Amino acid sequence: MKKVFLFTVALALAFSACQKYDVSEPVSADKMAKATVSGVVYANTDLTNTDKEFAPAGTKLKFTASYSDLGITTNTGTFAAETTVQANGTYSISLPAKASDITYTISCEDFVADEVNRYKTVKKIFTATSDQSVKQGFNYVKNIDYAAGTEILSTVYNWTEKGKFETKLEYVRDASTGTKIEVPTGTKVIVTIAKAALGTENDKVFEVSVETGGKITIEHLCPPLTANPNYINITLSTGVLLPVKIFGEDSYKVFSIQSNATHQLQAGYTNNTVKSILLSY
Fold it and tell me: What is the pTM of this model?
């Protein structure tokens, strides 16, 4: 009886070893059929012409889809594949696909570039997003357009013509007479142009020196007369120790420009309407 039982078990094992089991391997992205997506990535950085420029070479494009959309149950979350833009703006990528549509989200790497228009060059952040549905065995053409977004305040203006401001600095040396005399030659005057006028991160500040006869001349590049606004404003300041006579006694006082008035510069013009500026202490 024992021998019969052992024979039966051996026969069963031999029979089972000969059977073909239909066991499916888990689906993985690398073993799936593929679809190809390719195209050109544009970024319109020069607004002075109608042609589109390409996104910078090396810009990364990431294609993502959920594992559940791919039909993969062994992974959770999101599948991602990445490619880069070539020197001529082109890209190409092979993606896992199946017989039914899979929609990939295309996340495009932001980049900073100069946007040129008629009047100035502005640094901006360029961004893009897109998507593409694919099926296995198909080749798709997907062009992507970047759009200019946030401006970075480090603007360089394409201004070519200067405007000029001329005036004379004076002060009263003897209060008893009220006679005005010119500020000494070589006195430093600080000129400030507001950052809003220049599109820069900070105000522009520079110095000019008083010329013979108390004269100062300030020149700076200005927007073209067709721009809006077509001028820039400047403000002046100084602090200079000058000799004075107070109640008949000789002394020294620090004189400065008290007014916060602005003065306009326009391309091709000389503004000399302010004949003199009186310093006071």
Answer: 0.53
